[in-house]
Amino acid sequence: MLVLGIESSCDETGVALFDSRRGLLGHALHSQIALHADYGGVVPELASRDHVRKALPLLEQVMAQSATERGAIDAIAYTAGPGLIGALLVGASIARSLAWSLGVPALGVHHMEGHLLAPMLETPAPAFPFIALLVSGGHTLLVRVDAIGAYRILGDTLDDAAGEAFDKTAKLLGLDYPGGPQLARLAAGGDPARFRFPRPMTNRPGLDFSFSGLKTFALTTSQEAGDDAQTRADIARAFEDAVVDTLVIKCRRALEQTGLSRLVVAGGVGANRALREALQDMACQHSAEVFYPRLEFCTDNGAMIAYAGACRVQAGQRDGLEVSVRPRWSLEELPAV
Ligand code: KG4
Ligand code: ZN
């Protein structure tokens, strides 16, 4: 079965073609970073308009890359939420119109399910059940995954998402949007011994997170210690160490509490090298295995949507006649496959 995937929930337009027998045939991505950079964050209306401009050219690119005719497509999957409503509606409208014109089914996919299943595109793919750590710009979730659609949220953030905390702290260190990767680069030259930030909510039971205090901690530290280049790098390092440590502590706890031995890490912050190394060390000590998507599929992309859509369409799921998107949508509401 050949499934086209369209991702447009935020500031990246992604298109991909996944074949259930042959795997991923092609994928293309357009990032809107340059478009939003002057504003210091995503401007929703600009995002929607840019998805309109880029979706069809990216589709052409993917079809050419895969040497496939549109008529061969069996189904179209698109991100139906969570995300920015205008951006979601663009992807949904294009996907539904295309599906209608080709006479094939369409299916709205949950963006976080896409992230969670992205490591399935790699070899070896993780077997069920596993724990998923989903760390993106909008979410920080620990999920027990027993099968596709059998998700139990074990931990969530009470305030900022991990990526959001990276971006906000990066901004106050004078870095451009989106600051996560830049903060990580700055941290590489920082002294790990100069400042120590708290590891929020790790000294009490449970698997929830809270990251907004770290940004305030970074702010007060920079007010007290100055903002010369080395101090900024030292603050970035202390911040990154605190986030990484906190995530590792909670992942270890989730593995211990559930008795599971496989951990999947996905979402933009999953691209962070310090986090990857620390999770790998923890997993080694606990005889557990960690699975990641390839780096380019940690952040938003069309491949994860095509894959998640293919799993569900193959099981007979498809949209009704109405076109609707869900800016807010819990993973636990998804039907099982
Ligand atoms: O999954 P994603 O592409 O979009 C959402 O669904 O939110 O994640 C984007 C987030 C941003 O907050 C970005 O700063 C963060 O992931 N990010 C990173 C790194 N690469 C991306 N944060 C820390 N270190 C990185 N290397
Ligand atoms: Zn995402």
Quick structural overview:
The protein is of the alpha/beta class and 337 residues long.
Fraction of residues in H or I helices: 40-55%
End-to-end separation in angstroms reads 17 Å
CATH-level-4 superfamily name of the largest domain = ATPase, nucleotide binding domain
Name of the CATH class of the largest domain: Alpha Beta
Estimate nothing, just give the exact number of structural domains: 2
Ligands bound here? 5'-O-[(R)-(carboxyoxy)(hydroxy)phosphoryl]adenosine, zinc ion
- Within the CATH hierarchy, at the fold level, what is the topology of the largest domain? Nucleotidyltransferase, domain 5
The whole-angstrom Rg is 20 Å
CATH architectural category of the largest domain? 2-Layer Sandwich
Strand content: 15-25%
Please give the order of strands in the largest beta sheet: 3-2-1-4-5
Order of helices and strands: EEEHHEHEHEEEHHHHEHEH
The rough form would be described as globular
Number of strands: 10
Average pLDDT: 97
SSE layout and pairings?
Blueprint: E1 2-7, E2 12-19, E3 23-31, H1 33-37, H2 44-65, E4 75-81, H3 85-102, E5 106-110, H4 111-117, E6 130-135, E7 140-147, E8 150-156, H5 162-172, H6 179-187, H7 212-225, H8 229-258, E9 262-266, H9 273-285, E10 289-291, H10 303-314
Helix pairs in contact: 2-3, 4-10, 5-6, 5-7, 5-8, 6-8, 7-8, 8-9
Bound molecules: 5'-O-[(R)-(carboxyoxy)(hydroxy)phosphoryl]adenosine and zinc ion.
